[in-house]
Every structure is written in C-alpha cells, then in structure tokens.
Design a protein that fits this description.
It is a single chain. The chain is of the alpha/beta class. It has 2 domains: about 180 residues, Rossmann fold (3-Layer(aba) Sandwich); about 110 residues, Rossmann fold. The chain contains 11 helices and 11 strands. Strands 3-2-1-4-5-10-11 form a 7-stranded mixed sheet, with helices on both faces. Strands 7-8-6-9 form a 4-stranded parallel sheet, with helices on both faces. The protein starts with a strand and ends with a helix. Bound molecules: adenosine-5'-triphosphate. The site of adenosine-5'-triphosphate has 18 residues, from helix 4.
Length: about 325
C-alpha cells in the first residue's frame, strides 16, 4: 500500500494518448490522496534528476494533445546497473514509492529490471504506435497513428488514380507489421509488405503489370519500414512493370496529432487503473486490453514474450486486395 508518493513517466517513442494516460494517473492519485511526481524525458530524466511534483492543473489542457508533456527520450545509461541505481536514488530521495511507466517493450523491460534490482513497485502501460506489446491487443497511440496513415493513403489514392500510378507508402514498424497491415486493410491496399511475412517481388510485379493491362488505374502498396527499403522497392517495381511508380515515406507525421477518441478513452481507463493498482500495492503488472476489456498482464511475461502478427490480418489483407 502506497501512502505518500508515486511517479509517472513516458519513455521510448512518443505516442498520441500518452498525455491522456499520464493525466489520468495524476488525477486519480491525487484523488486518492497520494502525491505524484512527473519524470521528464524518460529514464534520461530519471538519471538526470529531471523530476517535478505535479498537481491537477499540471495536466490541464492536455487530453487533446499528441506527443507527451513529460517529454520522452532514449537512455543508454539506463541499460547499465549503475545508471539504474542513479535513477532509483533520485526517486528514493523524494520518497517516491512506486512508478507508472508508459512506453513500449524496451521501456517496460527497463521497469522490470528496476523492480528486480530495487524492489520498487512498477506498473506499466503499453504506449507505442507499433502495437507490439505482448498480452494486449491495444497500445496507446496505435489507433491515432493508424488513422493518420489511412488519411494519407486516401489522399495518395486520388493522385495515384489520376496518373495511373503505383503508389508505395512507407509506414513505421521496424519489427512489427501491425500498423502496415491494419492500414493496408483499412486503406484498401493491393499489397502489404511487413517484416514478419516473406513476399515475392517478381510475383507482385507480374500481377501488377497484368492488372494494369486489364485496365486497372492505380495500386497502393503499403510497406512497413522494416520489410524492405521502400525507395529501392519503387525503383525496382517501376523497372519491372514499366508503370509509373511513386514512393511516399510518411515518417514522423505518423506519430503526431490529436489522439482519436479510442486512444483518449482507453488511455484514460488504463491510467486510472494503473494509479489505483500501484497505490493499492499491486506491482509488476502491465494493464492492457483484451477483447475490449481492461486486463492485467504480468510485467515479466509481457517483456519476455514477443507479440506476433495476427495471421487473420494477413489473410484478410490478401483476400480483399
Ligand atoms: P517504442 O516501441 O516506441 O520504440 P520502447 O519503449 O520499446 O518504445 P526503447 O527505445 O526500446 O523504446 O526503450 C526506451 C528506453 O528504455 C531505452 O532508451 C532505455 O533507456 C530503456 N530500455 C530499453 N531496453 C532496455 C533494457 N533491455 N534494459 C534496460 N533499459 C532498457
């Protein structure tokens, strides 16, 4: 049972909805009579003692904002036991008794090590646009990023159709194809290339050529950045098909923007759960969603397992292309 203070931080890549989650953590803890500290810039700020006490107004005017008001960073130093000790000592000196970490699997791994090494209670919330945290079918920010991508695909489709072009759209996802697969299906793409599934370039080019000969006006190919080099792919596809091909790399546009209702709602629900759980003495859990309901996942299981791409999505993308 925590009596005095908890801290909240965002870590890893920023994701829309992190603000809504942190806001819910802060307001819930204050409601429970527990002080809340915000750690700026993830583990880097924890080590650098960039920590401030928050009040209810610290999280005003935030729910609609993308990014994270706490800032986020990557920290090599935190990967060392000495770095983690420095970070822990900065929490300890303020009487912080528990930590809510909002981030991807790397950030949650860092939290699991703090828990093992110092026994500090840790509750994690999955915050990443990649939707690649094991044990939850939802991560904060993925829905907003997916909507941003689909909006871009809609626009690219107009211009591709006008010019009878093939449009290759590169989206984020070094190791995870969830964003590409989901937006490929929702954006009506002909092909979706992801790191998890092998593809045959010659077959694809052959099919594209055939389809254009039969009168097709345009094609959309969504490529996860970890599947292949999209620019190089564009050159090869144009060479092999003889069809005008353009590549659009969406880049960091995908991370920003006002969170969708889904991200605001779910992040708020998870934030409240996290604060209540950590205050009541729960530790080493990650809260996520399964079939629309909040679930708690063991932190060590979450970080030691790899989420795989749902084969049903792969099948559906092929079926509807
Ligand atoms: P995203 O999915 O958006 O990339 P992430 O949380 O997985 O988010 P990472 O860069 O992997 O992002 O991790 C964020 C930070 O967490 C790292 O900079 C590092 O400080 C810490 N971290 C990651 N992996 C470990 C690890 N194995 N041990 C200790 N700390 C780690």
């Amino acid at each position: 049972m925590i009596k005095k203070a908890i801290a909240v931080m965002t870590s890893g890549g920023d994701a829309p909805g992190m603000n809504a989650a942190a806001r819910a953590v802060v307001r819930t803890a204050l409601h429970e009579g527990v002080d809340v500290y915000g750690i700026h810039n993830g583990y880097k700020g924890m080590i650098g003692d960039d920590i401030e006490q928050l009040n209810s107004r610290s999280v005003s005017d935030l729910i609609q904002r993308g990014g994270t008001f706490l800032g986020t960073a990557r920290s090599k130093e935190f990967k060392t036991p000495e770095g983690r000790k420095k970070g822990f000592e900065n929490l300890q000196k303020r009487g912080i008794e528990g930590l809510v970490i909002i981030g991807g699997d790397g950030s949650l791994t860092g939290g699991s090590l703090m828990s093992k090494e110092f026994g500090i209670p840790i509750v994690g919330l999955p915050g990443t646009i990649d939707n690649d945290v094991w044990g939850t079918d939802y991560t904060i920010g993925a829905d907003t990023a997916a909507n941003t991508i689909v909006e871009a695909i809609n626009k690219l489709r107009d211009t591709a159709s006008a010019h009878r072009r093939i449009m290759i759209v590169e989206v984020m996802g070094h190791k995870s194809g969830w964003l590409a697969m989901t937006t490929g299906i929702a954006g009506g793409a002909e092909y979706v290339l992801v790191p998890e599934v092998k593809f045959d370039l010659d077959d694809m080019c052959h099919e594209l050529k055939d389809a254009y000969e039969r009168g097709k006006r345009y094609s959309i190919i969504v490529v996860a950045e970890g599947a292949c080099d999209a620019i190089g792919l564009g050159t090869v596809v144009e060479e092999k098909t003889g069809i005008d091909t353009r590549v659009s790399v969406l880049g960091h546009i995908q991370r920003g923007g006002s969170p969708t209702v889904e991200d605001r709602m779910k992040a708020s629900m998870l934030g409240e759960k996290a604060a209540l759980a950590i205050i009541s003495g729960v530790t080493n859990v990650v809260f996520g969603f399964d079939a629309g309901k909040v679930v708690s996942i063991n932190l060590f299981e979450a970080v030691n397992n790899k989420k795989t791409l749902d084969p049903e999505l792969v099948r559906l993308a092929r079926m509807l292309a």
